[in-house]
């Protein structure tokens, strides 16, 4: 296990990058705690796989250093970093049996056969392949081969870190849940530092202690699932986390009041002068449809998704979403929306603004 330090790290696939826009991975300075489970979350092309490959040694950064427990491993080959990596598509030895595939990393390090047999049996049970240990990998399906890759990555207890690059892409949904559960158990039992790359927020939020959200080659927030939900530090985090994501509404903010298309709304906090693009961020869970309270809204449709209703509405020319309980009444005369002031975030140029003053009494919007 290792503490992983990213020191002034950046990478460009261009030979002579001229500006920040030329970098696939923009400058990073972070410490990832020894023994924690992290998920790198973001849309395709945001830089998460680039970062993972730099950590593993498959890619050398254009600038900066990477350290394991304070030791500079920037130019160390993958084999010297003592990590295990599982890729998006299965990498197995087709001519070997499932047992020999799982045993390979242990035998390669000269472990006693008694230990190899015990550990292989344990991992095979974990990935649901005990009855296939004698079968050749060549005749297995993609999902079964990926389970072998996962098992081979998990079979060693002494690694500095376990790296997973979208490993469940080819796994069926039921098995995805089981394997995520097993990965969390493995982390709990052995305390490996784990880094899990995914574009799926459910995978990230259910797997990780901390989620590292990436956007346009940059880490925009590292936090617990609760922190990402309650206080998105960037509008992308608010949009990407949640279903539906956070409502982002252009506004003018003066002190503890917000103005949307000239209509005034109270805020729970006060703010200093703001420049550039100013917006309010409100989760659909903290918006409520009303007959009498709030600002005018036009309901376009109501979607019943079983556990709750999603109300799609027009709000001063902007699309917003409101979540109502399954048993909550929604009628044609409900044409106002009330935002819970304590859950309204303010953003300037996409970044969350820290409030200056807490307002003790907030009137209804």
Automatic annotation (TrEMBL):
Tell me yes or no: is ATP-binding among this UniProt entry's keywords: yes
Query: What residue stretches are annotated with the ABC transporter domain?
Result: 4-241
**Gene3D superfamilies found in the cross-reference section:** 2.40.50.100, Nucleic acid-binding proteins, P-loop containing nucleotide triphosphate hydrolases
What InterPro entries does the record point to? AAA+_ATPase, ABC_transporter-like_ATP-bd, ABC_transpr_FbpC, ABC_transpr_MalK/UgpC-like, Mo/tungstate-bd_C_term_dom, NA-bd_OB-fold, OB_MalK-like, P-loop_NTPase
Gene Ontology CC annotations of this record: ATP-binding cassette (ABC) transporter complex, substrate-binding subunit-containing
A single Pfam family it belongs to is ABC_tran
Superkingdom of this entry's organism? Answer: Bacteria
Q: Which SUPFAM superfamilies match?
A: MOP-like (SSF50331), P-loop containing nucleoside triphosphate hydrolases (SSF52540)
- Which protein family is named in the record? Belongs to the ABC transporter superfamily.
Q: What is this protein called?
A: Glycerol transport system ATP-binding protein
Organism for this UniProt entry: Sagittula marina
């Amino acid at each position: 296990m290792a503490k992983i330090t990213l020191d002034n790290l950046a990478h460009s696939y261009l030979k002579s990058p001229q500006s920040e826009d030329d970098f696939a991975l923009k400058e990073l300075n972070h410490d990832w705690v020894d023994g924690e489970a992290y998920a790198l979350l973001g849309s395709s092309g945001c830089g998460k796989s680039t970062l993972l490959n730099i950590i593993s040694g498959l890619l050398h950064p254009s600038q900066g250093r990477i350290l394991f427990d304070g030791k500079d491993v920037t130019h160390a080959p993958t084999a010297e970093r003592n990590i295990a990596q599982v890729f998006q598509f299965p990498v197995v030895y087709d001519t070997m049996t499932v047992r020999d595939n799982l045993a390979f990393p242990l035998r390669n390090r000269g472990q006693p056969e008694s230990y190899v047999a015990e550990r292989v049996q344990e991992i095979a049970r974990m990935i649901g392949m005990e009855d296939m240990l004698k079968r050749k990998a060549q005749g297995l399906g993609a999902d079964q081969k990926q389970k072998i890759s996962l098992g081979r990555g998990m079979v060693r207890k002494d690694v500095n870190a376990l790296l997973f690059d979208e490993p469940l892409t080819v796994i069926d949904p039921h098995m995805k849940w089981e394997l995520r559960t097993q990965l969390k158990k493995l982390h709990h039992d052995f305390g490996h530092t784990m880094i899990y790359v995914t574009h799926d927020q459910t995978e990230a939020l259910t797997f990780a202690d901390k989620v590292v959200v990436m956007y346009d080659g940059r880490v925009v927030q590292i936090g617990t699932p609760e922190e990402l939900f309650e206080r998105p530090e960037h509008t992308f985090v608010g949009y990407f986390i949640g279903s539906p994501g956070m409502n982002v509404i252009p506004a003018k903010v003066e002190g503890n009041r917000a103005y949307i298309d000239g209509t005034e709304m109270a805020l729970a906090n006060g703010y200093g002068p703001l420049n550039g693009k100013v917006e309010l961020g409100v989760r659909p869970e903290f918006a409520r449809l009303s007959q009498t309270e709030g600002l005018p809204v036009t309901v376009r449709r109501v979607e019943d998704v079983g556990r709750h209703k999603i109300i799609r509405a027009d709000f001063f020319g902007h699309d917003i979403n409101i979540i109502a309980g399954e048993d909550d009444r929604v009628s044609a005369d409900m044409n106002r929306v009330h935002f819970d002031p304590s859950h309204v975030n303010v953003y300037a140029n996409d970044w969350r603004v820290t409030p200056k003053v807490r307002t003790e009494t907030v009137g209804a919007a």
